[in-house]
Design brief:
TIM Barrel; 2 domains; eight-stranded parallel β-barrel; 16 helices; binds flavin mononucleotide
């Protein structure tokens, strides 16, 4: 796909390849790895505005960033414009240049609470949320889905409302809420959103290869792409899309990823929490089932790294 800078209000990005917010995965370590492979923006996972207001420690931990993040991007969720603005004005949010609002989360806990994708059929409230957040002076972007039910797209009117509220960029995940993360991506609706607004539109959904990225841009004319699961399995996908040779092995990336996490968390915490990520790195590796099973029983990173070394040596 054609690489280009994206002008998001007063910030211009190096390119148009972004890492998606990914709950449980897009922490400082993953963001730093993706940025090292050439992503130009990387978002924290979604953080509850109410959690921030109540000073929830776990929520604040999700906002930890490093100097690798030259442009700092957080994603928040909520449905009360006043509470959301107060949350974004808290000291813990001060360092963030870009705050993205989640209008796509399909999970029952969020949806049934009137947050995330439940806002897709409430464009007036969404507009109010954006206009209130804009008062913080931060760059405010939004991540939406094409609709709640497949076949009943809401994204075009919704995107217009967000633009009206002052949104600086919109990312469209090309699936309806009822599809969660499965199924075909609706390129046409993303293309319609792109034509309907005058702010950058980023396309998301189903990009697992450089070819997929090409196809996405060709079919939508979007300004860029946001990678999600494709980047969790292969953070070097950013380099592949940029047409760069990747000179680092999977084994080395796993080591680097663990080392980054160890700068912040205790060894056992890293060993346990890294299990789900290692399964993604090992996806598609022939005969890796026994390794995965072994790793699930290990409680320190030294043993995990030794098992990984053994696996790739054989
Ligand atoms: C494990 C997981 C966690 C996610 N967490 C978030 C999140 O915190 N905020 C958000 O806007 N989207 C979240 N998403 C959605 C992704 O950002 C993305 O829109 C979706 O996975 C579609 O892209 P893909 O097909 O390339 O994976 C999550 C998806 C997955 C699989």
């Amino acid at each position: 796909m054609k690489l280009k800078k994206v002008k998001i209000n007063r910030i211009t990005t190096e390119n148009n390849l972004f890492l998606a917010p990914l709950a449980g995965f897009s922490d400082f370590a993953m963001r730093s790895i993706c940025l090292s492979f050439g992503a130009s923006l990387a978002f924290t996972e979604m953080v509850s505005c109410k959690g921030l207001i109540y000073g929830n420690l776990n929520t604040e931990d999700l906002l930890f960033t490093t100097d690798d993040e030259k442009i700092k991007c957080a994603q928040v969720f909520g449905n009360d414009p006043t509470i959301m603005r107060k949350a974004v004005e808290l000291p813990s949010m001060e360092k963030f240049d870009i705050v993205d609002v989640n209008f796509g989360c399909p999970m029952p806990k969020i949806f049934n609470n009137g947050e995330g994708s439940a806002l897709l059929d409430k464009p007036e409230l969404a507009e109010k949320i954006i206009s209130e957040l804009k008062k913080t002076g931060k760059i405010i972007t939004a991540k939406i889905r094409i609709g709640i039910l497949t076949g009943k797209p809401l994204a075009v009117d919704f995107a217009k409302a967000l633009e009206q509220g002052g949104a600086d960029m919109i990312t469209v995940h090309g699936r309806a809420k009822d599809k969660i993360y499965a199924g075909e991506v609706d390129y046409d609706t993303i293309a319609e959103v792109k034509r309907a607004v005058n702010i950058p539109v980023i396309a998301n959904g189903g990009i697992f290869s450089a070819n997929d990225a090409d196809k996405m841009i060709k079919n939508t004319d979007a300004d860029g792409v946001m990678l999600a699961r494709g980047a969790l399995e292969k953070p070097w996908l950013f380099a592949e899309i940029r047409g760069e040779k990747v000179n680092i092995s999977k084994k080395q990336i796993i080591r680097k990823h663990i080392e980054k996490l160890l700068t912040r968390y205790d060894d056992e915490v890293v060993a346990v929490n890294f299990r789900k990520q290692i399964c993604l790195y090992l996806k598609g590796e022939p005969n890796s089932a026994a390794l995965k099973e072994k790793i699930f029983a290990l409680k320190n990173t030294r043993d995990i790294l030794a098992a990984v070394d053994d696996f790739f040596a054989s």
